[in-house]
């Protein structure tokens, strides 16, 4: 089967790591029956400086019309406000209907702390609708922000989180051992205080689970209040499999969880909608190491596997995850952020060799 993949390197080391994802796809063994065609697409701050737009309409149209999936590198966002500039990845998520941000945090067996969880963050509402206002009361300023939780978005995120729990179980069965022998889902909320808004989130996700026990019954259902979730996540990270959360809690939890596995250079993500997925390393454009050929390609390679997984190709995804784990476990051909002295390209080749 032929798959067309959009490549959006963006800025800085995005241009060094996206080719790693491409090479891994090209090197997939023929047993999987996949052929890839690649389309290079523009976006980013450098592109904005040249043309006045950070995300050309052409990029969006090509993704929608001719791509089966895509990989996004990183963008450099200016620290001061630049007129006319807004983040292309935030715009892409909106334009492509990518309502879930999926971020796995996984150890390599025997190395570091045992953790193999994925945080599924709602990507469209909560406090991120940015409906804020400021007014004066008794001569003092008061600011308010609206936290919006809808039944519709909560249903969608609940359903995709449950599907991810099933999919992960399948990848585990294909790819060998793991911390978990059966799937579980943990719904994060603060409905002891925000009983209406977080209450709706919790009840809706629970409702999705209960409405189809024939499909989801093998998944253990759990709930955790967000503050004690932070505590438990650092005390006993091995307990969590799929964690589903409203936007803000998901943002905070996922950055915190990345600290459990060391380098930003190994943490992957996927932006997922009903009919499209964009794999994206969670790190930025890393200007401090740009051009040195030492950026860690692992986050991007894992994001490439995630893209395949969400496109429905679990077997090649499992193969890539296993090759990355084997490379990390040996801990010989790794980049300087992991204490090694290998180059980006050497790591790519070592991982390809293990496919
Ligand atoms: P960063 O993630 O680019 O870098 C943080 C630190 O981690 C740096 O020391 C960097 O060298 C290291 N690092 C990151 N990725 C690495 C990799 N693959 N291999 C080895 N080392 C790696 O975050 P920073 O420095 O805060 O931001 C730099 C630029 O990136 C900013 O313009 C920021 O706005 C942008 N950014 C973009 C993101 C995106 O595109 N989604 C996310 C985060 C930041
Ligand atoms: Mg964040």
From TrEMBL:
Q: Which residues form the Isopropylmalate dehydrogenase-like domain?
A: 4-351
Keywords in alphabetical order: Amino-acid biosynthesis, Lysine biosynthesis, Magnesium, Metal-binding, NAD, Oxidoreductase, Phosphoprotein
User: GO MF terms on file?
Assistant: homoisocitrate dehydrogenase activity; isocitrate dehydrogenase (NAD+) activity; magnesium ion binding; NAD binding
Q: Which domain of life is it from?
A: Eukaryota
Question: What EC identifiers does the entry list?
Answer: 1.1.1.87
Q: What Pfam families does the record point to?
A: Iso_dh
Functional pathway: Amino-acid biosynthesis; L-lysine biosynthesis via AAA pathway; L-alpha-aminoadipate from 2-oxoglutarate: step 4/5
Similarity remark: Belongs to the isocitrate and isopropylmalate dehydrogenases family.
Kindly provide the name given to this protein in its UniProt entry: homoisocitrate dehydrogenase
């Amino acid at each position: 089967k032929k798959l067309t993949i959009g490549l959006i390197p963006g800025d800085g080391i995005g241009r060094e790591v996206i080719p790693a994802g491409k090479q891994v796809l090209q090197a997939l063994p023929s047993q999987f029956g996949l052929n890839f065609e690649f389309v290079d697409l523009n976006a980013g701050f450098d592109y904005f400086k040249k043309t006045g737009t950070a995300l050309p309409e052409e990029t969006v149209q090509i993704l929608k019309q001719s791509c089966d999936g895509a990989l996004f590198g990183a963008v450099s966002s200016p620290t001061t406000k630049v007129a006319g500039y807004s983040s292309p990845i935030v715009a892409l998520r909106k334009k492509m209907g990518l309502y879930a941000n999926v971020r796995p945090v996984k150890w390599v067996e025997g190395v570091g702390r045992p953790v193999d969880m994925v945080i599924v963050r709602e990507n469209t509402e909560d406090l991120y609708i940015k409906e804020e206002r400021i007014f004066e009361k008794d001569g003092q300023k008061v600011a308010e922000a609206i936290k919006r939780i809808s039944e519709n978005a909560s249903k969608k995120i609940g359903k995709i989180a449950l599907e991810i729990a099933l999919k992960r179980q399948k990848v585990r069965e294909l790819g060998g051992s793991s911390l978990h022998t059966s799937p579980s889902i943990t719904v994060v909320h603060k409905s002891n205080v925000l009983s209406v808004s977080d209450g709706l989130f919790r009840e809706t996700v629970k409702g999705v689970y209960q409405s189809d026990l024939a499909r989801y019954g093998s998944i253990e259902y759990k709930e955790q209040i967000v503050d004690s979730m932070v505590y438990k996540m650092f005390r006993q990270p091995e307990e969590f499999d799929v964690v589903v959360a409203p936007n803000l809690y998901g943002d905070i939890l996922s950055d915190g969880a990345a600290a459990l596995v060391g380098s930003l250079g190994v943490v992957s993500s996927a932006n997922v909608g009903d009919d499209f997925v964009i794999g994206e390393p969670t790190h930025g454009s890393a200007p401090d190491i740009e051009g040195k050929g030492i950026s860690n390609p692992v986050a991007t390679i894992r994001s490439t596997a995630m893209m395949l997984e969400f496109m429905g190709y679990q077997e090649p995804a499992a193969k890539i995850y296993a090759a990355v784990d084997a490379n990390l476990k040996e801990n010989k051909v790794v980049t300087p952020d992991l204490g090694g002295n290998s180059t980006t390209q050497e790591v790519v080749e070592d991982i390809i060799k293990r496919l």
